[in-house]
C-alpha cells in the first residue's frame, strides 16, 4: 500500500466536505484521485514516496503514460488531481505540485450551425401540416435552444398560460429548482394547437414519445428530409445560441434561457467576435 494512503484518504474526505460536493462530484474526484495513489503511486518506484515529496514530474509521468492520446480523460484526471493537491497545499500537507504540471490541450470541437436558408426551411416546416408533436419539438429546439433532456421532460402541464402568452415550466437539475422560461411568439400558436389536442383536463401527456437517444435520430432524419443536409439535434440548439448572441454579449442571460452554463455558451463566441460585441456594449452603454 502507498505509504501515505491513510493521510490521502483523510484529505479526500476533507476536500469533499469542504466543497460540499454532490454525489456525482464525489465519485468523479474519489475515483480518479484514488487511482493515482492506489495504482500509480503504489508501484515499487513510488510507494515509499511521501505525499510532501511528490513532484510535478511524477504527476506528469502518470498523465502522459496512462492517457497518451486520450486528452479528454487526461483532463479529467488533471482537474481531479489539481483540486486534491491544491487542497493538500493550503492545508500544509505538500508542496504546490500542480503549478508545473502540463495542462492537457483539448482540441475544441467545432460547432455546427444551420445556414439562413435552412433556418427558413425549418420555420416553414414548423407551420406545416405534419403532426403537431414533432413540429412543436422542432419549434422548441430552434426557438429555445433547450437540450434533448429538457425537451423530453416536457408534458402538456409544462406550459403555463400567463398574461395572454404561454411560458414553459421545467425542473432545473443543477440548481435543483423549478424555473419558468419565456417563449418566443412563434411558438404560441403551436402550443395552443398542441394543448387543444392534448388538454391537461384529460390527463398528463408527454410531448415526446421517444427516448433521449431515439429523439436524436428522429430529429436528424427529419431535418435531412426538410433541408436536404445532414444536421444533428444539437445543431438546432447551437443555432439558437449563435443567433441570440448576435444581439449582444448576453452570455449569462442566454445560459439561463437555455439552462446551460456560461462556459458552454461562451464556446459559441470566437475571440474576435466576443471582443467586438463587448466593445459595442461599452460604446452603447452611455
UniProtKB/TrEMBL annotation:
Residues 6-89 form the Core-binding (CB) domain. The lineage of its organism: Bacteria, Bacillati, Bacillota, Erysipelotrichia, Erysipelotrichales. The keyword Cell cycle does not apply. The keyword Zinc does not apply. GO terms for molecular function: DNA binding. Keywords: DNA-binding. This is Core-binding (CB) domain-containing protein.
